[in-house]
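hey
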């Protein structure tokens, strides 16, 4: 700048950035704490933008899939069972349209190429105006419980077929309540 007497001059502005630096330090510490929490969970954890684009995957994703977190953003369809993709995409599109929580089961490929079933849940985070600003999601491995449930259902069907073929009836007595249950064959036999 030019001073009133015609000589050149310099103008300096000074800002105290200590408060801003403290807020930035706290923000980084908070982000680190959130990442540590996500990494400590047994689930595959992720977050995404309002349109559902993934922006974060916890360490478990890489351990499970063998794919680096930064690659998962674009490669996630390659780790989902191809038969499940159309159903997943349709359900996710419907969820985004209504901003409702998401819950679905599908198969995710493990690093060894084997697929396991996961219960996938996602919840929208809303700002004070009700607009979705982020999604948080978890994927919980349910393969073992599903296998047990399938085996139980097969055993139940087999028992039902066997008792029917043998013309046997089945009844139950619940000790705590004294309730008695029986099937149609017992009713026929006992009247």
């Amino acid at each position: 700048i030019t001073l009133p007497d015609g000589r050149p001059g310099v103008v300096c502005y000074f800002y105290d950035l200590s408060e801003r630096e403290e807020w930035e330090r706290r923000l980084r510490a908070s982000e680190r704490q959130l990442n540590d929490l996500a990494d400590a969970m047994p689930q595959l954890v992720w977050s995404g933008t309002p349109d559902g684009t993934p922006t974060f995957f916890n360490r478990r994703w890489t351990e499970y899939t063998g794919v680096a977190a930064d690659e998962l953003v674009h490669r996630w369809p390659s780790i989902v069972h191809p038969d499940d993709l159309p159903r997943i995409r349709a359900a996710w599109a419907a969820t985004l349209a209504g901003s409702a929580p998401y819950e679905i089961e599908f198969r995710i490929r493990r690093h060894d190429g084997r697929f396991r079933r996961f219960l996938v849940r996602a919840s929208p985070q809303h700002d004070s105006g009700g607009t979705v600003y982020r999604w948080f999601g978890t994927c919980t491995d349910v393969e073992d419980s599903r296998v047990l449930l399938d085996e139980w259902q097969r055993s139940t069907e087999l028992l039902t077929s066997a008792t029917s073929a043998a013309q046997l009836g089945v009844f139950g007595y619940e000790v705590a309540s004294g309730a008695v249950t029986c099937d149609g064959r017992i009713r026929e036999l006992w009247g």
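The mean pLDDT is 84. Strands lie at 44-48, 54-57, 102-109, 115-126, 132-141, 171-173, 180-182.
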